[in-house]
Amino acid sequence: MRMHLPHFSNEIIVEENPPHPLLHFPRIPPRLPPDQCSSNSSSTFIFRMNSANRNHSLSDPITAALLPPPNESAADREKRLRAEEQAKKISDDIDEMLKAERNERRKKNPVKVLLLGQSESGKSTTLKQFQLLHTPAAFNAERIAWRFVIYLNLVRSIRRILDAISPDYETLNSHILGDDEDENADAASLIISSTDGTSSSSYHGIRGYENYQHRLAPLLVLEQRLIALLSDEEDNEEREATRLITTWSASSPSPGSVRSPKAPPDLSASLEVIIPQNVVQPGPNSPLSPQSTQEISVKTTSNWKKALSLGGRMKSPKSPHSGELAGWWEDPDDPVHILNRCSPAMLDLWKDPNVQQRLVDKRLRLEESSGFYLEEISRITAKKYIPTDVDVLKARLKTTGVVEHTFAFKTAEFRGMTWKIYDVGGSKNQRHAWAPFFDDVNAIIFLAPISTFDQVLAEDPHVNRLEDSLLLWKSIVSNRLLSNVSIILFLNKCDLLQAKLDAGVRLNQHMVSYGDRPNDYDSISNYFRNKFGALHQSYTPNRERELYIHLTSVTDTRRTHTIISSVRDFILKSNLKMGGYM
Ligand SMILES: Nc1nc2c(ncn2[C@@H]2O[C@H](COP(=O)(O)OP(=O)(O)OP(=O)(O)O)[C@@H](O)[C@H]2O)c(=O)[nH]1
Ligand SMILES: [Mg+2]
């Protein structure tokens, strides 16, 4: 039977078996601190006989038994010293053996690291950075599969723009920011206090809206296909047809057909794209379908990466056995063709000054979600497009369930050691899945995006994102189960914080407590560092625990890899220390 000790315990396994036979040999007395002991030439430790410890030692039966008899002869003394020397040698051998055993165990038991933080905080992106750094071959193997997520992200950004310029936008938006608490908004860039000058009753959409809607209509169909592709691994066509029927039949939901957003996810289901149902009914002219404002997530048990990478079914029909890279653009069914044909219309829409003005008026900052791809329309819709590292890092796919990744270290210092990283879903209805990992984890990397002080949660538009991060942080650092777990804090999305401040957004309009301190990057990042640090200081159950805080932009590969290396060394060393391996 194996019993886990609390904290770091996964590395220390208590076996309820008989003790090792060598443990029956006599052990030498424990070494005492230098002020309480000294050694003679035969390396035998002798108590310093001041009156205090003599009294103590005489009352200690083991110590008393080890003291030489007062009338010891020279021959007896030699015999005793020989016996002690032998005992010490055996003891040293045991120590060596235990050390070797611990090293073996250390290699077998992986270091477990949990990535925590609210949804869109950057957990999955951090995991991708670990992959890029430690298993670049695996990262490369998945690169092509990310093409489909990137396409979907781009199509959804276009859809969000169409939503924003639609005559029905105000109706939809009032529902999103209204009283219902359904998980129905991708609120990454919606601001709580909207003070734009556009009157909701007078807005009729921008000029040319119908034209854009018409030219971009094929993308709406493509969106459904991409969702189907990402959800499927085999039997594609049959399942796609079924899924399309299911999807579109949800466009006029009866109240009973709406999935409760609070229902816990069915983690046992193997493969499913979750399309949360929206209670908002689109108007007759609207491009909005029930999915338009919602995020797509693929269950972590889905095998979409494998299914969509080269060697899977996305091979060119001309090379069914070779799995060659060349050729998918020769497949007339590949999604790239629709994107490529719609590329000029997408560019016209994105560059249209009226559209840009509308986005500014509505304070829709698409760059905070996957709007990054809008700046790269021509490159991404090219027929032979292959995602770059940054494209993959910025691809957004919400996590549901828990993803486990194993890394084996090859450096001399940590050779043979493996590291398991768990990436969890961060939205409120996913957090219940975190707790089972708490009693068996060695370190936590907590991500708090500090650019989000003016945003609300997608799943709950009444909650400010930064406030949610602070509350979540407090609950993690004060958790007794985690008191011996190393914690590293990434204050993330610093690049977006900088951009937001450059655009003139003021922190004190959203956090009154900031007062009239300077509204610059250094002052604000320092402020957040202190705020999160103070919470740890006040609530940690372990006052010895050191907290490491990094200011990060985890989409920036060079800087993130430097941070990851130092975090990795810190976690491994503190784990070795806590496990008694150092
Ligand atoms: N510009 C910028 N974008 C970031 C940064 N960190 C993450 N992102 C982007 O933010 C989006 C969300 O990041 P994810 O890593 O998917 O977030 P997550 O924490 O895994 O979210 P859930 O899976 O919903 O819990 C992705 O498109 C990322 O590329 C950052 O530091 N800067
Ligand atoms: Mg994720």
Automatic annotation (TrEMBL):
GO terms, biological process: adenylate cyclase-modulating G protein-coupled receptor signaling pathway
Record flagged with keyword NAD: no
Keyword Methyltransferase: no
Annotated keywords: GTP-binding, Magnesium, Metal-binding, Nucleotide-binding, Transducer
GO cellular component, one term: cytoplasm
Residues where GTP binds: L393, K394, A395, R396, L397, K398, T399, N492, K493, C494, D495
Disordered as annotated region, ranges: 238-265
CDD domains given in the database record: G-alpha
GO MF term (any one): G-protein beta/gamma-subunit complex binding
UniProt: Mg(2+) binding residues: T399
Positions with biased composition (Low complexity): 249-261
Protein name, UniProt field: Guanine nucleotide binding protein, alpha subunit
Classification of source organism: Eukaryota, Fungi, Dikarya, Basidiomycota, Agaricomycotina
